[in-house]
Design a protein that fits this description.
This protein has about 400 residues and is of the alpha/beta class. It is built from 14 helices and 15 strands. The termini are close together.
Length: about 400
């Protein structure tokens, strides 16, 4: 029988604060980290809103020498990983180091460093780049930095699949643990994408809201970009119990699919296949799901498509699970979103409180689901789905269960 994979530690950096507790309590209490954009070139941007990690201060976590080689995306990943590893009570000595993996998802990688160096070369006509420009900007940096910081010598790599990156990374970690390749994996996602160039690129797509992020709501206008990281310690449930660790929740199933249809327009059929695959992998029925943390970006097309996908995958049960999109509070952190959302799922499983979709302005007939809106709702949650659906039709869904229900 394949190993159940437990979550024994989690860490986060988000617009709701530094730490997984700050993120969860903000979501639970219905607070939003979305605020007016603070950017040195804001006068040149149409974008007025963002979910920025204002409480995060690099000097609180790193000395100047190390900061010289760390893009913000790696900083976030290191802080979140450190918190998760400390909660799990792990120390990677020689015996453990080779039996551990690091798998981090990111969509943009070291975007702020890349943007800065491009400005230096192209706008300022500079002849030299920073000597550590490649080290800071390379997409693999977050995984490398975590492996070095904790002396982990097993597999370490980054997964990049746009907004599904974190869920794909955690799926890879689960598969490695199940196969026996590793005992422990540090997995999640990190994103620091609020560069001038990236914001201008998103503006060009005309999917950013100037109002508020209001997923599944009548009158929704689009998404709000965010930044942050969520990182988890994953290990087989038997391994966790053997060392006396507390299982916070269990990743019981993973489901992945590709729409193979359109580079930007989502397909309910592809999304439904990933949901069904996660349920099948977990050995769960539709009727076992009490909560879905939806991808819920706040765009008109995506939310309506996701609603149809939920109805395809869950059939007559589709109207029963409570559904929310926490992007209305922590923004759309692209490749880190699935990791921030897994913090919300773990919180719901452990406390019986489902966080809300904020800014809800009224029901949309195209999104006729059992939505938790504006305020949290108490509800016993034993099994949940967490959705990540990306540009290019790349889909990854996690089925997560309460630790007490793992077998």
């Amino acid at each position: 029988m394949r190993a159940s994979v437990a979550i024994t530690g989690m860490g986060a950096v988000s617009a709701l604060g530094v730490g997984a507790t700050a993120l969860w309590e903000g979501l639970r209490d219905g607070r939003s980290g979305i605020a007016p954009l603070v950017h040195p070139r804001s006068a040149e941007l149409r974008t007025t809103l963002a979910a920025q990690a204002h409480d995060y201060q690099p000097a609180d976590h790193f000395d100047e020498r190390l900061l010289a080689q760390l893009d913000r995306v790696s900083q976030f990943a290191l802080v979140a990983a450190g918190e998760a590893i400390a909660q799990a009570g792990l120390a990677f000595d020689d015996a453990w180091a080779a039996r551990a993996a690091v798998v981090i998802g990111t969509g943009a990688g070291g975007e702020l460093s890349r943007d800065e160096q491009d400005r230096r070369i192209y706008a300022e006509k500079g002849q030299r780049m920073h000597p550590l420009a490649i080290i800071r900007a390379m997409a693999s940096a977050p995984a490398s930095q975590i492996s070095m910081a904790h002396r982990i010598t097993g597999p370490a790599f980054v997964v990049s699949s746009a907004c599904a990156s974190a869920n794909h990374a955690m799926a890879q970690a689960v598969l490695m643990i199940r196969s026996g390749m590793v005992d422990v994996a540090i997995a999640g996602g990190s994103e620091a994408c609020l560069s001038f160039g990236m914001i201008k690129a998103w503006e060009a797509m005309r999917v950013l809201t100037s109002d508020a992020c209001r997923p599944f709501s009548l009158g929704r206008q689009g998404l709000v970009l965010g930044e942050g990281a969520g990182v988890f310690v994953l290990e087989s449930l038997d391994h966790a119990r053997a060392r006396g660790a507390t299982a916070l929740a269990v990743i019981a199933g993973i489901g992945m699919s590709a729409d193979a249809a359109d580079i930007v327009a989502p397909s309910e059929h592809g999304e439904a296949r990933a949901m069904s695959a996660a349920l099948n992998d977990a050995g769960l029925r539709a009727q076992d799901i009490q909560y879905i943390n939806a991808h819920g970006t706040g765009t008109k097309a995506n939310d309506a498509t996701e609603t149809r996908a939920i109805r395809l995958a869950l059939g007559s049960w589709a109207g029963e699970p409570l559904i929310s999109s926490t992007k209305s509070a922590h923004g759309h952190a692209l490749g880190a979103s699935g990791a921030l959302e897994l913090v919300a799922v773990v919180g719901a499983l452990r406390t019986g409180v489902v966080p809300p979709t904020l800014n809800f302005g009224g029901p949309d007939p195209e999104c006729d689901l059992n939505l938790v809106v504006n305020e949290s709702r108490r509800h016993r949650v034993l099994a949940a789905l967490s959705h990540s659906f990306a540009f290019g039709g790349l889909n990854a869904v996690l089925a997560v269960t309460a630790a007490d229900d793992a077998s």
